[in-house]
Amino acid sequence: MLEQLEKIEQDALSALEMMDDQEALESWRVAYLGRSSPLMAVFDQLGQLPKDERPAIGRRANQVKQSLELKLDEKTEKLKQVELRRALETERLDITLPGRAVSLGRLHPITKTLRKVYQIFAEMGFQVYLSRDVETDEYNFQLLNFPPHHPAREMQDSFYIEGEFEEDNPLLLRTHTSPGQIRAMREYSAANPQDPPPVRIILPGMCYRHEQVTARAESQFTQVEGLAVGKTITFSDLKGTLSDFNKRMFGENVRSRFRASYFPFTEPSAEVDIECFVCGGEGCPVCKRTGWLEILGCGMVHPIVLQNGGYDPSIYTGFAFGLGPERITMLCYRIEDIRYFWANDIRFLEQF
Ligand code: DAH
């Protein structure tokens, strides 16, 4: 039995020499250490041996088993190293190749315009005031002095929100940023109702209109509202501020023109044009041969609106304005169709 064990060990070790990959090692393990290997047969026969032979044979069989297992582990480790070295030699890495370009994101053109607008008004001392997108009829229209049957209130112009609401005061998506004027003035005046502080803010945000979508009109667009309220504000301040804004936005030499207009929440009201920067005022397709481009609406805050905001119109005056970043961006980059902005087409967005 002892010689038999000797031979099992010899055979196993010399067979192990020949194994040269992990798969071969596994079949070697099955053959020499597996259930039906000669070594396991020795363990199985131990019980039938004479009592005095059992300890020596048993001890020897265990030694052989341990030594084969050890050699198997060593060989496995050795083969792993060999395979790793082979992989390193064949899979060469050319570290002189240029790296892969990282594709950079970029700002949406409207975001760029908005940031420039914020920057210009920040330099003039205007703070950004964020108001809500979901409004009530009261704030969006009534408090802004819209007459009860004003056409802008008709169903087709607003997205109304279904649900419970007070009679005559449904919820809707704001159709302009102007209701933020009332919210801001009420917040400012609530802080000191006897002597409310002056206001100098811009209110940017998304607006929504239930209208036919065309190249010139989207159902969703941004606006930047402006509001200045104080005890000595005049129409000259309005003209000075907006002419200066136009210069900073469109160029030092740009000329501005104020045309009388109508908005329910301002009196007097005006629309502001700049001299066409495409043709320099000569007349071209961009300015529709007029030489002027309409940029924004503005006016002196209506006394009723001041009153609704908690500012006594016999003491306070103010000016307000509203501009459309989409329109400004379209003029600056000669974009022909407003629908590009929110169509999420990467070919459009990559150009900015
Ligand atoms: N809310 C107006 C609109 O959506 C824009 C506007 C015009 C805002 C004149 C103003 C303003 O504050 O004074 O068409």
Features:
about 350 residues; alpha+beta; 2 domains; 11 helices; about 20% strand; elongated; binds 3,4-dihydroxyphenylalanine
Layout of strands and helices, then pairs:
Elements: H1 2-18, H2 22-33, H3 38-45, H4 54-90, H5 109-123, E1 127-128, E2 134-136, H6 137-140, E3 160-161, E4 171-173, H7 179-191, E5 199-208, E6 220-230, H8 235-250, E7 256-263, E8 266-275, E9 292-301, H9 303-308, E10 317-323, H10 325-333, H11 346-349
Parallel strand pairs: 1-5
Antiparallel strand pairs: 2-4, 3-4, 5-6, 6-10, 7-8, 8-9, 9-10
Helix pairs in contact: 1-4, 2-4, 5-10
Explain how this protein is built.
The chain has 352 residues and is of the alpha+beta class. The chain folds into two domains: 2-90; 109-349, BirA Bifunctional Protein, domain 2 (2-Layer Sandwich). Helices cover 40% and strands 19% of the residues. It contains eleven helices and ten strands. The longest helix has 37 residues, at 54-90. The chain is elongated. The chain starts with a helix and ends with a helix. The model has no long low-confidence stretch (mean pLDDT 93). The structure holds 3,4-dihydroxyphenylalanine.
The CATH topology of the largest domain is given as BirA Bifunctional Protein, domain 2
Q: For the terminal residues, how far apart are their CA atoms? A: 87 Å
The H/E string reads HHHHHEEHEEHEEHEEEHEHH
What's the CATH architecture name of the largest domain?
2-Layer Sandwich
Structural class: alpha+beta
Mean pLDDT: 93
